[in-house]
Design a protein that fits this description.
The two termini are 22 Å apart. By secondary structure, the chain is mainly beta. It contains no helices and ten strands. It has two domains: 1-74, Roll (SH3 type barrels); 75-108. β2 and β3 (35-38) form a beta hairpin. The strands form three sheets. The protein has a six-stranded antiparallel beta sheet, with no helix packed on it.
Length: 108
Amino acid sequence: MAGAHIRRGDTVAIIAGRERGKRGKVLRVLPEKSRVLVEKVNMVKRHQRPTQRLRQGGIIEREGPLALANVLLVCGRCDRPVRTGINVLADGRKIRVCKRCGEPMDKG
């Protein structure tokens, strides 16, 4: 599955593009498009028509999707963007681990 190394709620660093160097929390992962939405990063303006849900129309700002290849998970221990690996625990569960320090990224 594309994008299994990044999940909703993770803190990521943007490593390429206009937003390079910024960090943010993942709001949504779009694996079918290999894209990710990051909080307060890659803000785009959208012209919105008034609807039942959104009474006030106009120009609204929202997060635009970024390519998964342009983000890296931030390790809690290293506090740096790192590549991740997969370790299988004794009970058969797979967890993500930091390639730099070996710290588990997942709770449990």
